């Protein structure tokens, strides 16, 4: 039945309040994450070029290792939100603890794998002879903090599922501040060099994990939820995470292919590509914050058995995505002449940047729809479809991207291939949401 206009407006206003309350703190927490590497870069940059190059290699490896396991946050958010919607807080927290135990197990496995293979990984990543020792040092020390990093991901998912995005923001701010102080103190005060920066990051990440665990444990005790590891629950979390892992790896493959193609186009093109990719990622934070709100809200509605509420929330969030994408697109298009000189003064880099960023600006509304629907389907626990859709997208994007240098195309053509990738994602996600097959109500999918 169609809602009366007045009722529809009240529903939209309620959804708007929920979206803003969850998305704004989520955006702050998302922005705080890359600041860790920025602080490390600023501190280590004064030690020398070799140290900074080593950090670049090690940070790239660490970011890749951790981002692969982002499903710990996404899958946990959806599962916890469903149980919150069903009114079963003890089960919600129990579900979250299963995710945290899985994070600890995966983190320990990654540490065991990285420590002995660090020199080989650094060499395979293309580090120079002067940068390799510094990269190996940073990677080996920082790897000790990977279990804490994964716990932070899982615990963030728990709190998002509990409709709390403020606590992750506060923890992220605290972690960033501690990391900055520790880096300066250990690198220069204690004279530990690049090792001091790595230890500062490890300590800050462990501190964040401890704070998260304290919050979750307090909630578990309040609601009588067990803290002991449950093999069946951990196994279920892992199974739910596999499709999202496939989705994430497919998306990483898209970005790696794009970077590899840009590198073949020439030095100016790869430099411009990295600037565009950095800005594109920054824009993604704003849209991803709304998607995170979508994961929590949709999961709660479905857990409560409210299919109509889930549909209405989805519709409203898509409107937010389109509007946010359009605003961001206009800002990028108008501000190009102002911020491009901040990144480079080389006309050979500036020229392709001007046109390529216009492509990015034009496709921001499409990106807004993609991020929102991605978050909606994650909140619904529709991981298998997301995995399949992303594999289809990768299969269509790869030949389009590879055709760019084959036909003499440049960076603009490559980013039109990226626009094609986002359009395919939008179509696959829109078809799924329109079908209604993602709507499965109940405390578990």
Which percent range describes the beta-strand content?
A: under 5%
User: What is the H/E string?
Assistant: HHHHHHHHHHHHHHH
Oligomeric assembly: single chain
Helix count, per DSSP? 15
**Tally of discrete structural domains:** 2
- Provide mean pLDDT, rounded: 90
Q: Using DSSP, what is the number of strands?
A: 0
Could you describe the largest sheet, including whether it forms a barrel?
none
GO molecular function, one term: antiporter activity
Transmembrane segments: 19-37, 57-80, 100-121, 141-162, 169-191, 197-217, 244-263, 275-299, 320-340, 352-373, 385-407, 413-431
Keywords: Cell membrane, Membrane, Transmembrane, Transmembrane helix, Transport
Protein name: MATE family efflux transporter
Task: Give an account of the 3D structure.
With 445 residues, the chain is mainly α. The protein folds into 2 domains: 229 residues, no CATH class; 205 residues, no CATH class. The protein contains 15 helices and no strands. Helix 4 runs antiparallel to helix 8. The mean pLDDT is 90. Pfam families: MatE (PF01554). InterPro entries: DinF-like, MATE_fam, MdtK-like. It comes from Streptomyces lydicus. It is a multi-pass membrane protein. It is found in: Cell membrane.
């Amino acid at each position: 039945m169609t809602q009366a206009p007045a009722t529809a407006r009240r529903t939209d206003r309620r959804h708007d309040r929920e979206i803003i309350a969850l998305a704004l703190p989520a955006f702050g927490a998302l922005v705080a994450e890359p600041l860790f590497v920025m602080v490390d870069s600023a501190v280590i940059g004064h030690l020398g070029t070799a140290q900074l190059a080593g950090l670049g290699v090690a940070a790239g490896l660490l970011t890749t290792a951790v981002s692969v396991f982002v499903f710990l946050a996404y899958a946990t958010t959806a599962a916890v939100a469903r149980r919150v919607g069903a009114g079963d807080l003890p089960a919600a927290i129990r579900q979250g603890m299963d995710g945290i135990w899985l994070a600890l197990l995966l983190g320990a496995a990654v540490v065991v794998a990285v420590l002995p293979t660090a020199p080989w990984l650094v060499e395979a990543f293309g580090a120079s002879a002067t940068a390799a020792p510094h990269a190996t040092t940073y990677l080996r020390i920082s790897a000790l903090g990977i279990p804490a990093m994964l716990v932070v991901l899982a615990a963030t998912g728990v709190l998002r599922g509990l409709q709390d995005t403020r606590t992750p923001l506060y923890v992220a701010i605290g972690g960033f501040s501690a990391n900055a102080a520790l880096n300066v103190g250990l690198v220069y005060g204690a004279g530990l060099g690049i090792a001091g920066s790595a230890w500062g990051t490890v300590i800050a990440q462990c501190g964040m994990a401890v704070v998260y665990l304290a919050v979750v444990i307090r909630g578990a005790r309040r609601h009588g939820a067990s803290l002991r590891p449950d093999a069946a629950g951990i196994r279920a979390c892992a199974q739910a995470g596999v499709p999202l892992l496939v989705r994430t790896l497919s998306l990483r493959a898209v970005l790696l292919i794009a970077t590899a193609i840009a590198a073949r186009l020439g030095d100016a093109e790869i430099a411009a590509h990295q600037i565009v990719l950095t800005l594109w990622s920054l824009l993604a934070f704003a849209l991803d914050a709304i998607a995170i709100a979508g994961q929590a809200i949709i999961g709660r509605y479905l857990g409560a058995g409210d299919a109509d509420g889930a549909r209405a929330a989805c519709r409203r969030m898509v409107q937010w995505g389109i509007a946010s994408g359009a605003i961001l697109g206009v800002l990028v298009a108008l501000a190009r002449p102002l911020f491009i000189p901040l990144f480079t003064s080389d006309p050979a880099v500036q020229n392709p940047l001007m046109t390529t960023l216009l492509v990015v600006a034009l496709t921001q509304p499409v990106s807004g729809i993609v991020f929102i629907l991605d978050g909606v389907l994650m909140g619904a626990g529709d991981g298998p479809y997301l995995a399949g859709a992303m594999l289809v997208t990768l299969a269509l994007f790869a030949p389009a991207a590879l055709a760019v240098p084959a036909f003499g195309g440049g960076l603009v053509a490559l980013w039109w291939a990226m626009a094609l990738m986002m359009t395919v994602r939008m179509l696959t996600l829109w078809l799924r949401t329109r079908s209604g097959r993602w709507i499965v109500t109940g405390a578990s999918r």
